[in-house]
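Quick log. Single chain, no ligands specified.
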Amino acid sequence: MEAFDNALMLDVAMGGSTNTVLHTLAIAREAGIPYDIKRIDEISRRIPCICKVSPSSDYHVQDVQRAGGIHTILGELKRMGALNLSCITVTGKTIGENVDEWDIRSETCTPWAKASRVSGASAIVVDPNDKLGTAGRTAGGNLAPKPMIFFPGDLRAITLWRFAAAFNAGDAAACAALFTEDGELQVNDTTTWKGPAEIEAGLKAKFTEHRGMVRAELGTLNGTPVLVIWNYQGGEKKIACLLRMGRLRGWTISKAYHEYREAQIKAAQPAGLMPYDSVFKFKASDCIRTMETAYTPDGGLAILYGQLAPDGSVVKTAGISDTFKKNCGPGFVFEGPCVIFESQEDACEGILGGKVKAGDVVIIRNEGPRGGPGMQEMLSPTSYIVGLDLGDKCALITDGRFSGGTAGACIGHVSPEAAEGGPIGLLKNGDRIRIDFPNRRMDILVPESELAERKKTWQPVKRDLTGWLARYQKLVTNASQGGILS
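-> predicted structure:
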């Protein structure tokens, strides 16, 4: 139970995909653990949203990794006193032990963990005489971006990439962390630094001496990856030497040396890739925030109930824009007439056909586990709404589910679903829907007596199904139970 809580706390802390709710409920039931959507709602009310990833913000996954990654988000949950630290993980250690080692804000974070974060981005250095520009050819002759074809999956190349990113950032500690305890870095014929401490001290002095005018670029020499060390002086650049790897143990260097022989330098081929540490482009403390600086005091996912979703629904509040909130007014309540579509395909045709306008509540129903059947992932309708500049002006409600890349006021997993006679199946075009985000409710502004009359004549949408798909439709539960077979 506590491990599931940890997973959901992480999810709501970073405004993750609504699909996590569906899959977690299903996994829990398969494991025989009584985990329900109400427990997720309780977690989302007390865990703040401290990280947002594109399209919910300008930060991307690689930025989150550089800012500290998943373990630093978990570290913030630990500092809040929320995380269950004793849960065993696949590493064989507890989650608390993993966080202590890998949370870069932890006093016990390992040097290797810090070094691995400096994985770097890449500035593409193009030879003006290279007719292919930023492209190159694979071994099969196909065109591909140059970053895609530099020793993919090669441990030596990956480790040199990390070293170059740290080197170009002037981070001596991160460079040194890439060496084994008995590692050696030969500077020249008379000087060899031994051990991470000596390597760090030596590099620190060199970085001060270089004043940012010496840079490392990836390259090849006789079919092996190397670093080409450039010296920038007087507006020109010249190769000072190469950095070659003698021995590698796993992901760490046991021996590396500088190559000054002219023949070897001439034979080296720069790859056009100059790794750098991307952290200078943003504030890591803003990418992964603390409880005090959180985006919101509650989580980036919320469970909405109410008249329209008695058994619950899910919305990624982290993906709702400030512009939409402003359009809602000070109470963050959206109200509008519904425009109904009976499938994703109908919705795509209707949205592109101009049936949706600002202020509408788009209803896509019969896309739940039973209605679909199978609950296909929907990205196209939300993309079309955004493309028509309606993303901040409309809400979308469905008994189906969305892609993790969806942003906006998109509410999914409405339960009970239309195919089982849920309230969403009783709606008619023009019915007004009220979505109260702070109080986590969705209500139909139609008299209960009218809805009761509609229920008497309601009929499910018929799908022409046979075989296992027909059996699945009869046995599957709604999204509030994980869409599992009963």
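The longest strand covers residues 236-249.
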